[in-house]
Amino acid sequence: MHPFAPLLAFLASFAVPSLALHHGPGINATYDYIVVGGGTSGLALAARLAEDPSISVAVVEAGGYYEEEGGPENVIPALCPFANTSTDPADSSPIDWNFDTLPLTDANSRVIRYARGKTLGGSSARNFMVYHRGTRGTYDQWAELTGDSSWSWESVLPYFKRGCTLTPPNEATRFPNTTVTYNDAACDPAGGPLHVTWPNYGDPFATWAAIGLEAIGMSPANDFNSGELNGTAWASNTIHPRRQIRESSETSYLRSALKTSTLAVYDHTMALRIDFEGLNAVGVQVKTAGKRYTLRARKEVIISAGAFQSPQLLMVSGIGPRSTLEPLGITVIADSPGVGQGMWDHPIFNVAYQVNVETMTRYQTDPEYAAQVMLEYESRREGPLTTPVPGILGWERLSESLLSAEAIEALAVFPDDWPMVEYISRGTGLLDPSDGSNGEQYAGIGTALVAPLSRGSISINSSSAEHPPLIDLGYLTHPVDREVAIAALKRTRQAFEASGVTVGDEYQPGPAVQTDEEILEYIRATISPVYHPAGTCVMGKATDRNAVVDSQARVIGVNNLRVVDASIFPALPPGHPQASCYMVAEKIADDILHGPSQ
Ligand SMILES: Cc1cc2nc3c(=O)[nH]c(=O)nc-3n(C[C@H](O)[C@H](O)[C@H](O)COP(=O)(O)OP(=O)(O)OC[C@H]3O[C@@H](n4cnc5c(N)ncnc54)[C@H](O)[C@@H]3O)c2cc1C
Ligand SMILES: *[C@@H]1O[C@H](CO)[C@@H](O)[C@H](O)[C@H]1NC(C)=O
Ligand SMILES: *[C@@H]1O[C@H](CO)[C@@H](O)[C@H](O)[C@H]1NC(C)=O
Ligand SMILES: *[C@@H]1O[C@H](CO)[C@@H](O)[C@H](O)[C@H]1NC(C)=O
Ligand SMILES: *[C@@H]1O[C@H](CO)[C@@H](O)[C@H](O)[C@H]1NC(C)=O
Ligand SMILES: *[C@@H]1O[C@H](CO)[C@@H](O)[C@H](O)[C@H]1NC(C)=O
């Protein structure tokens, strides 16, 4: 039985009533702008464009409301591990594309299922709600890579800040030893559509994880929204402060746009192909409930279908590597060799112990306790159900003494303030209580490679957007990533040992795993995504043959077409990318409405 079965039934009453979607004039209609993909970036961009009453905007989204089609585990923060986002190919969710990857060549040929939102809100409706920004050096490097200084940290900061409203943590609801430090100027005082705050509960295990991370050399940091990722702190979250439920691009940008603008939303509508007249994008072929029709764009088509499907849509529409398109009978409109290439992602592995502090294991194994926790959430929006899994995060640049000369040289492509490793406290217990637990408490520290050198790709073997793209994650294909992973796992073990909260022997990988070879084998056998694919329609200088879009996100080689989402990141910021997705959407919307900021 689902460990939260009683809870889920009980909490079904929290499902959020939907707002009516405007369909505009319906099929074969014409708009100024058509945004393909009502996900994280797409809804932010469309909502901003629609604020101008003289502009007509439509969004085409394959899914509907996740609150209705997915259930409460997609809304209540602590239930996110139960929202069917696992890597098991047998897992699936009705609000997800449920993609399977190609076999991981350097991770035991495993095929993993890769979660991606198929819903209004996109992957912001699937994610684990961590909100933070990259480092100053990250965006300064974006400026260098694009040859456009308007992507520097100083220049993008206003676009981060205008997107959000920061609500201070409600310390009265949190344990005294889980007090949050933060930058209260991280969002504009007037506030933007997206709520960012902290949950009404600090996971006790995270306090011990922090002790361990600090014992091995990290220091407490003030926050992660101000251009530095160094040391430990409580991450801010995309959670609604009063309701303590998931905040997504749908609950924020879309809801406000539906109340105040004429934004048209074509939900449950699949975009099949971009239409061109010569080199000009003029519309989108779509399908709703089996019926095909065309939406025409007077000004532009903007693709925000995410890092897997934006390159796919470009390719099936004739923009991509000629060698991929021609054998599939796709007429080449622009031979763009970079489409789908150079994909980045952050892989993660885990170290786990039995611990002598309360974790999620208790709610999985003790029904009376679970009932009490439900009541606490229902009556006051407090307690453990308010918190998504990641509690305290820790960031570090590995000491050069731990790395080979080759690794030090290869990692020099990253700016000086860019951490190599992210540690994520996971007071989640065992997600499957049949997996050894008899009411004992288990917890983990996830270790993510955030300066990876391995690259993957997205390709197609069908000219139809309705067939899944070919997803090659490329994890651990670069030898330096394997070396860093082994070093990082050893650091995680040291942190856990120093935490003072462990009971007995290490649970995962376990004492039998000792040599570098054994550690690498454990990592190959268990490595999984943090779900941050990016860079598959990379933004760059027009002179760079691999650049897919220019620094205003315009697709190179054609007219009236942009891509705006994680696929255009010139480099994948260390850590969790949703804040950067919102920033990119805010910035390009401003470019479109008011001209480029340079
Ligand atoms: C399980 C999980 C956990 C994560 N945890 C975090 C986290 O804690 N913090 C964080 O910052 N990031 C996290 N991420 C990553 C983050 O959510 C993504 O980087 C971000 O949401 C990507 O935004 P996007 O706009 O690029 O794409 P998406 O939000 O995925 O939007 C793409 C949209 O396009 C639609 N679409 C695609 N193709 C078509 C088509 N042909 N026709 C119509 N519609 C189409 C999709 O249905 C989707 O709605 C997580 C992601 C996952 C999956
Ligand atoms: C929509 O356009 C298609 C051609 O693109 C045409 O075949 C169809 O009849 C049109 N439908 C309506 C209702 O106008
Ligand atoms: C979703 O996950 C739960 C466990 O959390 C599992 O019992 C259920 O079968 C999954 N659903 C699908 C459709 O895979
Ligand atoms: C912090 O307080 C919580 C709640 O009292 C407790 O469970 C946890 O062990 C404490 N952490 C530390 C490091 O003392
Ligand atoms: C991180 O902080 C430590 C102090 O705790 C400092 O010595 C180190 O230089 C900082 N690293 C970066 C990359 O800023
Ligand atoms: C495309 O590749 C997938 C995954 O390898 C495979 O299952 C599918 O049959 C292929 N389709 C075609 C048309 O070759």
UniProtKB/TrEMBL annotation:
Record flagged with keyword Glycoprotein: yes
A Pfam family the protein falls into: GMC_oxred_N
Active site positions, chain numbering: H532, H576
InterPro entries, sorted: FAD/NAD-bd_sf (IPR036188), GMC_OxRdtase (IPR012132), GMC_OxRdtase_N (IPR000172), GMC_OxRtase_C (IPR007867)
Keyword Cell division attached: no
Signal sequence coordinates: 1-20
Keywords of the record: FAD, Flavoprotein, Glycoprotein, Signal
MF terms (GO), sorted A to Z: flavin adenine dinucleotide binding; oxidoreductase activity, acting on CH-OH group of donors
Transmembrane segments: none
Ranges for domain Glucose-methanol-choline oxidoreductase N-terminal: 306-320
Positions with a binding annotation for FAD: T40, S41, N127, F128, M129, V130, P577, Q578
Origin: domain of life: Eukaryota
Cofactors, names only: FAD
Gene Ontology BP terms: secondary metabolite biosynthetic process
Gene3D superfamilies cross-referenced by the UniProt entry: FAD/NAD(P)-binding domain, Glucose Oxidase, domain 3
Family, as annotated: Belongs to the GMC oxidoreductase family.
Name recorded for this polypeptide: Glucose-methanol-choline oxidoreductase N-terminal domain-containing protein
Native source species: Aspergillus mulundensis
Source taxonomy: Eukaryota, Fungi, Dikarya, Ascomycota, Pezizomycotina
